[in-house]
Design brief:
With about 290 residues, this protein is mainly α. It has two domains: about 90 residues, Tyrosine recombinase, N-terminal domain (DNA polymerase, domain 1); about 170 residues, hpI Integrase, Chain A. Strands 1-2 form a two-stranded antiparallel ribbon. It has a two-stranded antiparallel ribbon with strand order 3-4. β1 and β2 form a beta hairpin. The longest helix is centred in the first third of the chain and has 20 residues. The chain starts with a helix and ends in a 7-residue tail after the last helix.
């Protein structure tokens, strides 16, 4: 494996850990899969469609589950490179598409969310260093459903006074409007008043805080709230935002817009999570229900 390939794999796995909350087992499996491809290809990062096509004969003896996982790892890897601007194309079209059932997202119940906020608010009230920042991060993750990368890179003046929304440029360089609750806006204003001049809302010594640091902050809050840390990540809080909003009666199209999903099929996964509400909706609203 070349040093360039190793560096790209490390960046990709950092993203999986911070944004998707991938487990150690998943990260090790993806590293192994990408290293196996790198050992065959002249350059993993610069591989062409033809290069990837040559993997099939080499991997033909693998179990179907292993082949499916390696294919998924490569698709996700090249999707990441394209999103980060490290490649102009995605050569993963050359890979076979094994049948795959998408798992339901991990979510937190409202009791878990309440526990997280109690801890974050208590610490912010005690003037503990960085506690107010951590509360604002939690407010925006759960209150607006931001992606980890969108949140950590918010500009200092992303939220203007009297403007109850953010204008973000997310995946695919697409712009979208994200509503911000009055309590979140108040927390952002309080946090902003403590900052020195600079370009970022959540600064660090070298720029803005990283996705990995955000992941660590959320897991630490979970532990303090008595929740198993492995259950909580920035991406899980984004899932909780979507699921709880849908349970409260939000329109699926509106949710798609707020989450920045290009395809509503991606948003529809939350209808499976909130099955109890959907059953109740049929029993209460369907014409046959009124004939009983």
């Amino acid at each position: 494996m070349t040093n360039d390939d190793r560096g790209l794999i490390d960046r990709f796995l950092d993203m999986l850990a911070s944004e998707a909350g991938a487990s150690r087992h998943t990260l090790l499996a993806y590293r192994s899969d990408l290293a196996a491809a790198s050992a065959i290809l002249p350059s993993l990062g610069e591989a062409s469609i033809d290069d990837l096509g040559r993997l099939a004969p080499t991997w033909s003896a693998l179990a179907s589950a292993t082949l499916a996982r390696r294919s998924a790892a490569l698709r996700r890897f090249y999707g990441f490179l394209q999103e980060e601007g490290l490649r102009a194309d995605n050569p993963a079209a050359a890979l076979a598409r094994p049948r795959h059932v998408r798992p339901l997202p991990r979510i937190l119940g409202t009791d878990d969310i309440d526990a997280l906020f109690r801890v974050a608010e208590d610490r912010a009230a005690s003037d503990e260093p960085d506690a107010l920042r951590n509360l604002v991060l939690l407010e925006l993750l759960y209150g607006s459903g931001l992606r980890a990368s969108e949140l950590v890179s918010l500009p200092r003046r992303a939220l203007r006074k009297g403007q109850p929304f953010l204008i973000l440029r997310g995946k695919g360089d697409k712009e979208r409007l994200v509503p911000v609750s009055s309590r979140s806006a108040a927390a952002v204003e309080q946090w902003s008043a403590t900052l020195a001049d600079g370009p970022w809302l959540f600064p660090s010594r070298s720029g803005h805080i990283s996705r990995v640091r955000l992941f660590q902050i959320m897991r630490a809050l979970a532990g303090q709230a008595g929740i198993a840390p492995e259950r909580v990540s920035p991406h899980v809080l984004r899932h909780a935002f979507a699921t709880h909003l849908l349970a409260g009666g939000a329109d699926l199209r509106a949710l798609q817009t707020m989450l920045g999903h290009a395809d509503i099929a991606t948003t529809q996964i939350y209808t499976h999570v909130d099955s109890e509400r959907l059953v109740r909706l049929v029993n209460e609203r369907h014409p046959l229900a009124r004939k009983r």
